[in-house]
Design brief:
By secondary structure, this protein is of the alpha/beta class. The chain is built from 13 helices and 7 strands. Bound molecules: S-adenosylmethionine. Keywords: Methyltransferase, Transferase.
Length: 289
C-alpha cells in the first residue's frame, strides 16, 4: 500500500520530538522551498560521489547528507551539538585567522553557517562554499539570501575541487574531518596546499582528537561512521605531512580543536657563486705578502 504521509512526518517529526525543535518553524521552512528544483539547479551532474560518502548513513539518516531531511534538520540539531554554544565554537575558527584574506574557500560548507560568518568578517573578500550535498547547499544559499550576503555555492568534492592552483589565500573546513576517513582528510589537506597562495592559511575546526580518544561515548552519540578513525589520528600531523608550516593545534572549549597552518615559500636549492677578483697584489691589501 502506498504511504501518504509526507517526508516531514516520516523523517523530520522524530527529530522535533527528540531535540525540542520548533516544529511549525521547521515545517514552514521545509514547505517554503521547491527542493527538487533548487537542488537540481545547484547540482553538478558530472560529479561522482565518493563511496565513503554515498554508501553511509550519517547521524542515523539513511542516504546521509544527500537528502532533504538531513539538510532541514542540520541547523536545529547542530545548535545543541556544539557546547558551550555554536556561535562561540564557530568564532574560534575565525579567531585563528591571522591574515586579511581576499579569496576564501570553505570546504564541506554544509548549510553555510561558518561560510556566512567568514563573509561577515571579511566583507570585501570573495567567498565560496563547497559541499558534496546539493540539499545542504540549498539551505546555505537560502541563509545567505536572507542575510543579504553575496557568497558563491559550489557543488563539489573537497578532495578535487577543480579550482586553479594558488587561487585562494584562506581555506577553511569546519566539522568536516570527523565525517571523512583519515585518508580523505589527508587528501583534502593536500588539495588545500595546492589551492593556497604562498603565505596562505588553512584553518580546520573539528572535535578535539585527544579528548575523543578518551571518551568513547562521545564518538557514539551522533552515529558518525568515521569519528573513531578521526579520533585516533592527528590533524596537526596530517597538516605537516601535507607540507604546511607553522602548524599549531589549540584546544577550544575542551571538546573542540582548531588547527592552523601556512603554505611556505617553495624550497629551492640555490648555489651561490662568489665573484672572482683579479689577483693583483694591490687588490687584496689584507693579504700579507
Ligand atoms: C558535519 S557537516 C559540516 C558542515 C559545516 N561545515 C558546518 O560547520 O556546519 C559535514 C559536511 O561535509 C560535507 N562533505 C563530506 N565529505 C565531503 C567532501 N569530500 N567534499 C565536500 N563536502 C563534503 C557533507 O556533505 C556535509 O555537508
Amino acid at each position: 500500500m502506498a504511504r501518504n504521509d509526507t517526508i516531514f512526518e516520516r523523517f523530520l517529526a522524530p527529530f522535533v520530538k527528540t531535540f525540542l525543535i520548533d516544529e511549525d518553524k521547521l515545517r514552514r521552512f521545509h514547505e517554503s522551498i521547491d527542493w527538487q528544483a533548487a537542488s537540481t539547479r545547484l547540482s553538478d551532474r558530472t560529479l561522482t560521489y565518493p563511496t565513503y560518502y554515498s554508501s553511509q548513513n550519517f547521524h542515523g539518516i539513511e542516504g546521509g547528507y544527500l537528502n532533504v531531511s538531513a539538510a532541514v534538520s542540520y541547523d536545529p540539531i547542530t545548535q545543541y551539538a556544539l557546547p558551550p554554544g555554536e556561535a562561540l565554537v564557530r568564532q574560534s575558527l575565525l579567531d585563528a585567522i591571522q591574515s586579511q584574506p581576499r579569496r576564501i574557500l570553505d570546504l564541506g560548507c554544509g548549510t553555510g553557517s561558518t561560510t556566512l560568518l567568514l563573509k561577515q568578517a571579511f566583507p570585501e573578500a570573495e567567498v565560496i562554499g563547497l559541499d558534496l550535498s546539493p540539499q545542504m547547499l540549498v539551505v546555505a544559499e537560502h541563509k545567505a539570501e536572507q542575510a543579504n550576503l553575496a557568497i558563491q555555492w559550489r557543488h563539489g568534492n573537497a578532495e578535487h575541487t577543480h579550482f586553479p592552483d594558488a587561487s585562494f589565500d584562506l581555506v577553511t573546513a569546519s566539522l568536516l574531518f570527523h565525517e571523512t576517513p583519515p585518508t580523505v582528510s589527508q587528501a583534502i589537506l593536500r588539495e588545500c596546499y595546492r589551492l593556497l597562495t604562498v603565505g596562505g592559511e588553512v584553518v580546520i575546526l573539528d572535535g578535539n582528537q585527544k579528548v575523543l580518544r578518551q571518551t568513547e561515548w562521545l564518538t557514539q552519540i551522533f552515529e558518525e561512521p568515521y569519528i573513531q578513525a578521526f579520533a585516533s589520528g592527528s590533524v596537526d600531523a596530517w597538516m605537516g605531512a601535507a607540507q604546511f608550516e607553522a602548524v599549531q593545534t589549540h584546544d577550544r572549549w575542551l571538546i573542540h580543536q582548531v588547527t592552523r597552518g601556512v603554505k611556505p615559500l617553495p624550497y629551492k636549492a640555490v648555489e651561490f657563486s662568489l665573484p672572482t677578483y683579479a689577483a693583483a697584489a694591490g687588490d687584496r691589501p689584507w693579504v700579507s705578502s
